[in-house]
Design brief:
The protein has a five-stranded mixed β-sheet, covered by helices on one side. A two-stranded antiparallel sheet has the order 1-2. The chain contains nine helices and nine strands. By secondary structure, the protein is an alpha/beta fold.
Length: about 260
């Protein structure tokens, strides 16, 4: 970005504040940052130049150019016990099936006992898809509120599809089948339909999640950031909205009502 108008000191100060905030946000999002002729620690301690007059002179002469190059790291190895930051990196995976899909109805998944389930059976219904975990700090509230959602809107056409995932801090250790069913029963989590444990990021990402992320990307990358990311799907099987892990399920109620 080349600035070719005469800046005042107030403008330059504001520019620096905005610039540093953007750099800080990029670091929080696990981006790699390259800054021409400088580094973020250097900029955080003092102005880009020795003083604003110098910077002013360079800008007016068009001799100063700020280049922002956020680079999202790519990790092609699927690993277990991954942290929030590593899961924020979208990985190279085959998206052929998700590219060809017209809706979630084109996918077949497995229930917790390993039996095939065509999502076409949910045609004409509003669907909320969630990656769940049993030992997350968000588990208790999400189990309760997802149960509340199902009880309130289940008879009106809402279906909640829950996909256990152990990729975030190994917080879903329960095995599929009876161990999973017993866990949910003991937790009083009547949250809807539960399917086989899957990967939502990486080389082994379930085809359904490849499709969901392609239709509703996230912040900076489409990768699932943590447990209890939620996708709302309309009656035509199209994902229409994505919600962060920290979004309270009951805060989605107004959007669900619009689709029912």
């Amino acid at each position: 970005m080349v600035l070719n108008r005469k800046p005042c000191e107030k403008y330059l100060k504001r520019l620096k504040v905005v610039f540093l905030k953007i750099m800080h946000d990029m670091l929080k999002a696990n981006s790699r940052i390259r800054i021409l002729n400088g580094s973020l620690p250097f900029l955080s301690r003092r102005p880009i130049c020795s003083n604003f007059n110098t910077m002013d002179r360079l800008l007016r002469r068009r001799q100063l150019c700020l280049v922002w190059l956020p680079l999202i790291a790519v990790d092609c190895a699927a690993t277990k016990d991954r942290s929030l930051s590593s899961n924020a990196k979208e990985e190279n995976v085959s998206t052929t099936m998700s590219d060809q899909a017209n809706s979630i109805y084109d996918f077949t998944v497995k229930d917790t006992y390993g039996k095939d389930v065509s999502l076409e059976q949910y045609k004409g219904q509003v669907v909320l898809i969630v990656n769940i975990a049993s030992q997350c700090g968000l588990t208790k509230n999400n189990y309760k509120k997802l149960t509340d959602l199902r009880e309130k809107y289940g008879d009106k056409g809402l279906k909640i599809l829950n996909f256990p995932c152990n990729q975030f801090g190994s917080q879903m250790p329960e095995a599929d089948g009876e161990p999973m069913v017993c866990h949910l029963r003991d937790a009083n989590a009547d949250i809807g339909h539960v399917f086989q444990k899957i990967d939502v990021n990486g080389a082994n990402t379930a085809p359904l999640y490849q499709y969901l992320k392609a239709k509703q990307g996230g912040t900076l990358s489409s990768a699932i950031k943590w447990n209890f990311t939620k996708f709302l799907v309309n009656k035509e099987g199209i994902p229409v909205k994505r919600y962060a892990p920290t979004t309270d399920p009951m805060d989605i109620a107004k959007d669900i009502e619009k689709l029912l």
